[in-house]
């Protein structure tokens, strides 16, 4: 096979995604516990003036700073409404305040309607009330007593954290504080770390300098962010226009500085990857300087043409469409187990797949889609646990897969398909019924090379992780290759206890590491990323791949549903897996 042909195979669809965003757990730098809040008056989302004095007859007032696009504010809006209903009879009121300069009254009204909020939603123009409270993020809450003195500030509960969530809250600090306040008791926890997006404050810095949005920043966002941060996609806010960006600058700086966005978890010391979305140090500094200079917009003549995203099938018209058997109801909040569907495509002859595209029906809640092959030799009871290679995938930012000429994925007659769906609730209940399109080779005799997939997997019956074990290491080896093969991509897969994952190339004679092919030191279950090599790696006879996975089944793992549980192999997120998927081409 020619080097040119090998390089063209990098068109394999990348599983690059975006989901959780712009959240931080940094504590507030200023404590206002015991401070009496001066009365203020703001317009609500209907344009009527509402004063804090109107709530002087209440035993307690919860002031919640909210935003219309922040993922946590979307999730916690309904929860605050439930809290209002639970404590309303005890003369507790909830007030929502939006201090974001980027959120209009119309957007606040739409937020209230979408989440069926009945408590007052007020607009804080110029973020004066946010400054008085020293509020920093959305959603951040302040519990006031009957004299409007701050008795608690921080989060609502501990369910959501940077990059993930628990199945349910373990501690509901706000609710506990309300109960203690109503009972006349001391509040045991008065401050907690805040999870959320930065409030989009009005800045006092006048725009200056030669770095502008239209000339320098828009091209960066177009190339690195736009696939996810646009209307209808899963990212929480748009980055398509200058007006969309203003108000999110503090959040943008934070996630770039901490490396949370764009999402990428490979250790840069090992391997170069074609689908690495990260900004270069120079690009990051350009964004930072632009923000620090007051975010000048620049001349419209410098604004590049925005990228065009194709509606409908991005690949050729499919020969067969695989669709979920039923529409799945995605709940408004919490976590959703992986939905797994075994589908019989009725393939009575070998198929040669040359293009695939996974298409979510509802992009706002579909985090990723994976379509696995189940070989005809697999027993029915093992369909979910012995899933085979991935032939199609979607995550925000991914492209359709189209094989180069003379290359295809061969699938045996009688194979089944396993459709894996991962959903991310966005604050209001929705439905999804996604599909995968497949194109077959018109003339299989012209296929000269197979793109193959394999799974380096720890034996499922032997996988066991003891309770409270923070560092359980599992190792699995691939078979030794008998011919040269070109390694194209690697996709590590674990569940909620996953901590790290590494692929090493091993010399069979010495059992020594020749090279680390991929190192993911901080595995994140929420991101099923396929790492596509920039230049395919040729693996010689007598060499094999060793996958090393580390699991954290302790309470230190915030995603852990139950550290007291002995964990075994299983298909759902509370179970575990240890699979190193690979794609390669025999040379």
Quickly list its features:
single chain, 587 residues, alpha+beta, Glutaredoxin, Jelly Rolls, 4 domains, seven-stranded mixed sheet, six-stranded mixed sheet, 33 strands, 30% strand
List the helices and strands and how they pair.
Blueprint: H1 3-8, E1 41-44, E2 49-51, E3 60-65, H2 71-87, E4 92-98, H3 105-114, E5 120-123, H4 128-133, E6 137-138, E7 140-145, E8 150-154, E9 160-161, E10 164-165, H5 173-182, E11 197-198, H6 213-224, H7 242-245, H8 249-257, H9 281-292, E12 320-323, E13 328-330, E14 339-343, E15 351-359, E16 366-374, E17 390-394, E18 401-402, E19 407-411, E20 416-423, E21 430-432, E22 435-440, E23 449-450, E24 452-457, E25 464-465, E26 472-477, E27 485-493, E28 498-507, E29 512-520, E30 531-539, E31 543-551, E32 567-568, E33 579-586
Parallel strand pairs: 3-4, 4-5, 19-23
Antiparallel strand pairs: 1-2, 1-5, 3-7, 6-11, 7-8, 9-10, 12-22, 13-21, 14-20, 15-18, 15-19, 15-22, 16-17, 16-20, 24-33, 25-32, 26-31, 27-30, 27-33, 28-29, 28-31
Helix pairs in contact: 6-9, 8-9
